[in-house]
Amino acid sequence: xxxxxxxxxxxxxxxxxxxxxxxxxxxxxxxxxxxxxxxxxxxxxxxxxxxxxxxxxxxxxxxxxxxxxxxxxxxxxxxxxxxxxxxxxxxxxxxxxxxxxxxxxxxxxxxxxxxxxxxxxxxxxxxxxxxxxxxxxxxxxxxxxxxxxxxxxxxxxxxxxxxxxxxxxxxxxxxxxxxxxxxxxxxxxxxxxxxxxxxxxxxxxxxxxxxxxxxxxxxxxxxxxxxxxxxxxxxxxxxxxxxxxxxxxxxxxx
Amino acid sequence: xxxxxxxxxxxxxxxxxxxxxxxxxxxxxxxxxxxxxxxxxxxxxxxxxxxxxxxxxxxxxxxxxxxxxxxxxxxxxxxxxxxxxxxxxxxxxxxxxxxxxxxxxxxxxxxxxxxxxxxxxxxxxxxxxxxxxxxxxxxxxxxxxxxxxxxxxxxxxxxxxxxxxxxxxxxxxxxxxxxxxxxxxxxxxxxxxxxxxxxxxxxxxxxxxxxxxxxxxxxxxxxxxxxxxxxxxxxxxxxxxxxxxxxxxxxxxx
Amino acid sequence: xxxxxxxxxxxxxxxxxxxxxxxxxxxxxxxxxxxxxxxxxxxxxxxxxxxxxxxxxxxxxxxxxxxxxxxxxxxxxxxxxxxxxxxxxxxxxxxxxxxxxxxxxxxxxxxxxxxxxxxxxxxxxxxxxxxxxxxxxxxxxxxxxxxxxxxxxxxxxxxxxxxxxxxxxxxxxxxxxxxxxxxxxxxxxxxxxxxxxxxxxxxxxxxxxxxxxxxxxxxxxxxxxxxxxxxxxxxxxxxxxxxxxxxxxxxxxx
Amino acid sequence: xxxxxxxxxxxxxxxxxxxxxxxxxxxxxxxxxxxxxxxxxxxxxxxxxxxxxxxxxxxxxxxxxxxxxxxxxxxxxxxxxxxxxxxxxxxxxxxxxxxxxxxxxxxxxxxxxxxxxxxxxxxxxxxxxxxxxxxxxxxxxxxxxxxxxxxxxxxxxxxxxxxxxxxxxxxxxxxxxxxxxxxxxxxxxxxxxxxxxxxxxxxxxxxxxxxxxxxxxxxxxxxxxxxxxxxxxxxxxxxxxxxxxxxxxxxxxx
Amino acid sequence: xxxxxxxxxxxxxxxxxxxxxxxxxxxxxxxxxxxxxxxxxxxxxxxxxxxxxxxxxxxxxxxxxxxxxxxxxxxxxxxxxxxxxxxxxxxxxxxxxxxxxxxxxxxxxxxxxxxxxxxxxxxxxxxxxxxxxxxxxxxxxxxxxxxxxxxxxxxxxxxxxxxxxxxxxxxxxxxxxxxxxxxxxxxxxxxxxxxxxxxxxxxxxxxxxxxxxxxxxxxxxxxxxxxxxxxxxxxxxxxxxxxxxxxxxxxxxx
Amino acid sequence: xxxxxxxxxxxxxxxxxxxxxxxxxxxxxxxxxxxxxxxxxxxxxxxxxxxxxxxxxxxxxxxxxxxxxxxxxxxxxxxxxxxxxxxxxxxxxxxxxxxxxxxxxxxxxxxxxxxxxxxxxxxxxxxxxxxxxxxxxxxxxxxxxxxxxxxxxxxxxxxxxxxxxxxxxxxxxxxxxxxxxxxxxxxxxxxxxxxxxxxxxxxxxxxxxxxxxxxxxxxxxxxxxxxxxxxxxxxxxxxxxxxxxxxxxxxxxx
Amino acid sequence: xxxxxxxxxxxxxxxxxxxxxxxxxxxxxxxxxxxxxxxxxxxxxxxxxxxxxxxxxxxxxxxxxxxxxxxxxxxxxxxxxxxxxxxxxxxxxxxxxxxxxxxxxxxxxxxxxxxxxxxxxxxxxxxxxxxxxxxxxxxxxxxxxxxxxxxxxxxxxxxxxxxxxxxxxxxxxxxxxxxxxxxxxxxxxxxxxxxxxxxxxxxxxxxxxxxxxxxxxxxxxxxxxxxxxxxxxxxxxxxxxxxxxxxxxxxxxx
Amino acid sequence: xxxxxxxxxxxxxxxxxxxxxxxxxxxxxxxxxxxxxxxxxxxxxxxxxxxxxxxxxxxxxxxxxxxxxxxxxxxxxxxxxxxxxxxxxxxxxxxxxxxxxxxxxxxxxxxxxxxxxxxxxxxxxxxxxxxxxxxxxxxxxxxxxxxxxxxxxxxxxxxxxxxxxxxxxxxxxxxxxxxxxxxxxxxxxxxxxxxxxxxxxxxxxxxxxxxxxxxxxxxxxxxxxxxxxxxxxxxxxxxxxxxxxxxxxxxxxx
Lengths: 254, 254, 254, 254, 254, 254, 254, 254
Hints:
Chains A, B, C, D, E, F, G, H: Residues 117-248 form the PurE domain. Eight copies of one chain form a homooctamer. By secondary structure, the first copy, chain A, is of the alpha/beta class.
């Protein structure tokens, strides 16, 4: 702890980051930011913008930048992006993915980690794009390279069979699927690596809004694990944890 | 009507059958038997044994035999089979399918119709066998020949792809599937003929007892029509109506 | 394959259509268009506009036109119609059905097939009109002539009984019904041909939004197959597959 | 009150009945019996045997007999019937309806009231028989004559149309229906009198156990009121209240 | 029938009304209007404005006026009221109840029937007002006088006990209740006449939107019949049928 | 800690109790027994017998006796009672409540605490008796005296109003109610003390098994807190915590 | 009563307040205001603004002010606040809490009671703030001081463990939690005082809108009582009743 | 392929195994056994005994032994174990786990693979034991060593905090939890490795049978993936796939 306090004294470490390292979280006007999650849990603490005001989003983004050097915000509106962009200091880059509704801010010099393992993200159709993009962003922040295999819904098996080699090349797969949710089962039947299924809130009538897809993934005849409907962030982060474990094993660090 | 009454007078037609032809249904101690359904609707009136006493089942079977020359009973217990066998007249044959829990009784000389069209019944696994057998029996009573393609669940796509030619040869398909219910969607993606999906009450936990399968079939990205969970009788009869329409068209009768 | 490539060389076939014939689908900016579905499956690949931007709808419509000569778009908004109309080439006709919210575009010279079998579409009340119109459009694209029997809800049996002859004339029926969903059961009790029921999302309170109608159709005491709530496209396409099978049988082509 | 106490003194009224008249309920070892319900509410307090031990049923039956002169017990087992029969005093008649699982006990000299209005009970099939019998018993205890119209399910409209005159003759109708629950709507469309629908717990799969029927009755396009699934007692009692109001009006007593 | 046609010839009866009397319904651009319902069923055919365009509402209102002399429209918007008011002929009065969202139009000289029986409508709180008003309007059209007992929710029993005399004076009661839906049970425990409960879509969280109230009414320990959530029209009409039966009995007409 | 270890050395405290005091739980063959819960949480750790073998129940009972001097077991079968009785040491008393299916074992000399506050347990009918008895037992173990007010269901308001004084005398009330669950709302409207509602799994059809009661309690128009269906243990323990807080305040100990 | 009427005569008591004291409620144009609830029940009658017009809210606020000296309004919009502020008499203070959407109005000289017991309100994250604020306001009106422990969600146990002393200091706790609703269980495991859990309507997909949190609280392995989703008012009022009981016991008043 | 056929010729490989290697599955009287799953998918094809007859289980076990050298059967009854034991050849070992209801049969000389990665299985209480045992067995067959951390439910946080080091030592964790399902969230907050949550069908009333636990896991504020209720097999197999990926990376094989 002495080291840390000396670093504060010399200005190498900001007081906010020091408090966070000591207590595990930062207290801001907009709530406590669990900055310690990243070291404790290995997953960036995502800031869920939905249900918060743009100014609260900007405040929490600041807290994340000050304590961890970067920030990941999900389900952002245009107003959130503007509020964050207006408020961040010079030298902070802000990347906004419209489709996935994510925003990543990063202080100058902050580097994302490097993970030597590959995650492939698979979608059945255009309705799955936003969920896949959210997963892609969290994986990118975790330092994992991703490949995309899109529009391979099972109504035409040729599309997914054409990609068998690509699917088998991944260390872990995230497969998003709405409607009847059959794609993750079909994909998991083709590979010998872990598959994480994400039900997507497409569909209509009975079983719509992702309910049929969730139930179908939970009932899959093959081996899958599942996250909640539209939970691209969770699926991406879980895939990232697996990828990092593989990468660490490759490099002998665990 | 005169002709009918004269036939009664001469004993060619039993009074019970005559009343049925005139009113459209027969009245028995165990309830009214809708004997006219077969001519009016083209589907044999199935007697659902579940929830009835064996003696009520036997009485209704008698009513069916007297008015239509044959009887189809579904969801039979051993006791039902015994009760029916004990009570039917000489010369009546009784066929009991244990797996599908059906019973077909037929008077001597009663002939099943001949339908020139083929129905293929497809199952994903052993849990679908009872439902498939029920469909097979009703189709047999309607005079339709059936082919079976079994155990081709989508967890291993090779099994269903190996049967593509067989699947394409049918005029109409009945596809039963439990768990996540993906098979009917995959099959319907391989053929250009009508597919009728039957969700099966397998599975466990969330979406178990056929709920996930039903929702998945209703949400299918391809074109399917669906019947209720475990409704082998309804799926078979609907496939039989389509087959008969095709057969009649082949032979110019409609 | 040589023939096809020569046809590309001479310009008889566009490269896009050739790729589609070879791979079974076309890749566009807005997603893969399953152009092969129509030959493989016998059902036009409907483009579901709901949830897509007007420009994505226009791009996919273009892909459909280039690869199959026509396009069927469902659940269109006014903006979708404008975007498609603005972008299609000269000589493409665009037909928009407001009630059914469908759009059909067709290249000059593209002819719809001719199916010699009749589908009758039956509705219980005005709330069923949009669903019926969607079914009617897909059947029209498949080349099937349709008859409409409207506003014959069972609260007044006289209305449906008056149409018995009309109902019996069809080769296959699509019956739409909201609220308690009793109409398909009553209609199926009057005819000896296949009936496909469509629950409609009318109603309110417990069982509203089509839930009671769906459950009622699945529990029907007569023989019916069912599609999801408001699934006019699926019901129409399934009826079209049956009609085509009957037509082919009439003309000896299968 | 003096009159009552004098009647107790002279033995015309038992102390138990006097306490009941004063407090409105009787206290027994097996619980308080709401003996006052019949005068206060016009409906016999039914003793629900299900979930009680045979001896508790017998004790409550005794309490009912002592305070009101008769007892109505529903959902009885064979053991309940034996327990009651063994324990009642000489001169008490015990009538047990096996199908409806009801028991009515009556002291010598106790007379059921006379209601001059008719209730018709309608069923769709044999599965509705127990519910109809329960309604019939409660109406009988209330002094109302009932007519039965059975097995007129809508899969064959002829059956119910044949009974139109009978249906129109009633002052109020109780219509029981399982599966899709369409019968009460069809019946209510034929008459101009109040119809009370009872969903029955038949059916299977989605919407089974009376769920589809309940939802269908609540969504009916015509005018109906509804009771819970299998609530033959409630439907009968409500019909009885209407019948009594009509009877009283006929005889000028209200 | 001759009489009717002669009345058409002399102009006493319009052709539209004559067709309606003969066929039982009128055909308009906006759908078939079941004008015969009122004579056949004793209940005015309500026009449900929700989900229809103002011009369709006006057209159906016209059809109702021409065939029955009056029209009852429920769930009207301001635009519907304007459209109807603009289009009706001179001499037609239009009454709009804002709270109940109903509209009643009546031709000059058209008289509502007179029913000699009283219905009391009871509410628990202000959230029940719209439902009660809808019931009141349909009863008024049926010629039944209504009394209102408002804001007597069971959280304060004194309020409802103070009204006991009023409640007992009615021939039949409609009791509306949202949230936990306890009021109809409490009221039914105080009177000896039929009670019809209407669950109201108030409440929040688990069991909100009337679900708890509906379930509570169906489970009531006392005798009640129930209509769907917010079904003021149905409750009012059912109460009206009972009231008319009582009135007819009072005046010896049945 | 030294004191404790010395007490172990001298035999005043058993090693098992010492370990429990140090670690907060005891480890047995049948699982870890959270013996510390009582001191940490103020609530006896109930042993839920349902789903455990009689011998496992006996083992855990032993662990509880050794570490806390007494044991409370809920949902016991006859076999559980026998197993416990056979195994406990001399001097341990075993009290079994058949109705509540509870068992309380107590070492000689172990005294239950004394709480100076009163809890009244209220039930609507006989179906609530088991739940009330379970609550009563846990309160007794916590040292709280309870009063019972039984069979005061709201179908007859007189019963509950007669008990108003009794209800107002309590410091806190537990009110159990099945079917429509109206009783806790009515009781809470009569008193100015905390009311804890317990929904009971009585009822049938829609909303049966306690679902309607739970939803009704959560929607109550008055102020209540609620526990899960049939959770007599939880309701009793929560009431006991309130009672103890009141008692401590009375005696100045907090 | 004479005293009260004399006070009216001398003007000490307004006629409205007198009527309220005599009847227990006040009748206004906007409904009956249960002014007596506060004395009868010990809980301020909250006026739920949601679903009422601003002018109705203002009228009921007036009724509350005139009969009880203060008013508590929940779920207010900006328009409600304006309407109330415009209409209240001089000397009435109006306090509006934006986050909790509550409004408290108080006549000059009206004093809130003093309760000598402490309630701690605990939240898991920012989504719980509105619910906590609503609870805080009702407790403030009841005269109870509250402490807040915020943002201690269980994903990082350190946050809640750091607050253990604070949590143990309270007499009763209100714990709000959305998503998986684990916080109240964890908190209740740390204290020996009553905990009231409030599920919050955060979350998404399966179990969203508070459904998972509610189910989780009802299933808690520890002792909790629960209120409906987002029911901050009810949780606060129930905690207030417990606090007042403790305070009264401390000061010997009960 | 030649090599394989020569091996068949020389008897090194049985014809059954050869067919399986060529087609990917074996056909038996009791259904097709997907023997290729293990090589294709890396997960042993589990035979689900539930719903199959003992003799069918024995037949499928034989097929598995002949084609893969070992067999894993889940949800076995005593009768299944007897049937398998009676039928297997000499030299086959049969291991039966009563708690997890699994059976593993292995031919002499068949070796399980070795995976150099550790999976820790965590349970909240004794109700989770069967699920944990099922996961343990599948992991054992996959060659993965497992550690157990049992009875650490969150009602007493000390239990789980005491095990933090143990939890952090694993490469991947399977956490089973019933009731409110809070344990996987708490565990995942303590480690930086992948956590797979298994909801367990304990609990009662609302959210019982694992529903609350499933919803809670899907809503978790931390990063988790989930399997269906009681799906110990799936959770174990998914953890095994992750462990094998890590092991392969450690040893450079991928």
